[in-house]
Write a structure and sequence with these properties.
Blueprint (H helix, E strand, L loop, with lengths): L5 H8 L3 H9 L6 H14 L4 H11 L2 E8 L5 H16 L4 E8 L5 H12 L4 E4 L5 H12 L3 E5 L11 E3 L2 H15 L5 E6 L5 H17 L4 E2 L3 E2 L4 H14 L3 E7 L3 H10 L7 E5 L3 H8 L5 E4 L2 H17 L7 E2 L3 E3 L5
Parallel strand pairs: 1-2, 1-3, 3-4, 4-5, 5-12, 6-7, 6-8, 6-9, 9-10, 10-11
Antiparallel strand pairs: 11-13
Length: 340
């Protein structure tokens, strides 16, 4: 077979010969999408200059450094977010992205603020998962004032919209959890509610949604006073054990935040799997297993790949455009044992 020519490449890519020549020369006058289309066509037809095209395209791509601050590294949810973000950053053809991810063991406001400021000193945009606290919000305001774009991930940090948010509609999340209790519980009794911390605005909003649905559609349920797990599985296990002992008529448990591993362990140890409707967040190895053995009835989950793509796209857009609403609400996924 004859070797593909520039004319063949132009035809395969649907562009002119002149455009192919500009791509081969590394001209900045060719749009990124066109350069990538020519590169893909070159790979498809076996064009001899594929390596040169890829090298020229890489040289023309803008370069950015983004940072992300996530919570504890031992938690599967944040490990999975980190992996999805790295994949999304590597897959963006529009730019070359140097992504730096930090996990916080110490969740104190001062440490969160310090790490965000240190990361922002090296980046053009940062994303952060954090509880709402004056020390943190003050630090993020100073970061924004220096021209670094800041995104709240998973948990909103502003009700005014001055900090873009990428995550779920948490009010709907809570109402969906309440719907599960209403339709799946054998008895409309008491519902326990575990929060990671009342300072996480996503958890506050999902609690509001839960209460809203129950007030409207299932007022015969009794929602117990929320208890904080401080994002700890051990604390969640201890709280769940006490709830089971103190409330034999417990009909449901909503684990709204960190610690679901501990709650699952407590319910299994008590031999109560399947007796209580348990709703929690995010599909991991642990929650998948709990769905399969009946310990959990429903998992409401972030679509991690989409969350990651929207985060990277938002950061890129923030660096190249102004005056736009960069908040991105992604739809949550609903899992039962029948669809995992």
């Amino acid at each position: 077979m004859r070797r593909p020519t520039i004319h063949d490449l132009a035809s395969a890519a649907g562009v002119s010969v002149a455009t192919v020549n500009r791509v081969l020369a590394g001209s900045g006058a060719v749009r990124a999408a066109t350069r990538e289309k020519v590169s893909a066509a070159a790979a498809a037809i076996g064009f001899y200059g594929l390596g040169a095209i890829q090298s020229r395209n890489a040289a023309q791509r803008p370069k950015y450094r983004f940072g992300v601050v996530l919570l504890q590294p031992h938690r599967p949810f944040y490990k999975n977010i980190a992996a999805a973000l790295r994949t999304a950053a590597a897959d963006f053809a529009e730019a070359e992205i140097d992504l730096r991810i930090e996990h916080l063991e110490d969740l104190s406001p001062q440490n969160t603020a310090d790490r965000a400021q240190a990361l922002a000193a090296e980046c053009q945009a940062i994303g952060i998962v954090s509880a709402v606290h004056p020390i943190v919000t003050d630090a993020l305001s100073h970061i924004q004032a220096r021209g670094v774009n800041v995104f709240a991930l998973v948990a909103p940090l502003s009700t005014t919209g001055h900090l873009p948010y990428v995550g779920l509609d948490n009010w709907k999340l809570g109402r969906t959890g309440a719907w599960a209790f209403d339709h799946l519980s054998r008895n409309h009794g008491k519902i326990g509610l575990l929060l990671g911390s009342p300072r996480y605005r996503n958890q506050e909003m999902s609690e509001a949604g839960l209460r809203s649905y129950l007030r409207e559609h299932a007022p015969d349920f009794t929602l117990l006073e929320p208890q904080s797990t401080f994002e700890s599985a051990d604390v969640a296990q201890d709280i769940t054990e006490k709830l089971l002992a103190s409330h034999p008529d417990l009909a449901g448990l909503y684990v709204n935040g960190g610690g679901v591993t501990g709650s699952i362990a407590a319910i299994r140890n008590a031999g109560r799997s399947g007796e209580i409707v348990v709703v929690g967040h995010d599909l991991t190895t642990v929650t998948r297993g709990a769905l399969l053995d009946g310990t959990m009835a429903l998992v409401l989950s972030h679509p991690l790949d989409r969350l990651a793509r929207e985060t990277i796209a938002g950061m890129l857009h923030a660096c190249t455009a102004t005056g736009e609403n960069l908040t991105r609400i992604v739809p949550f996924e609903v899992y039962t044992r029948e669809n995992i």
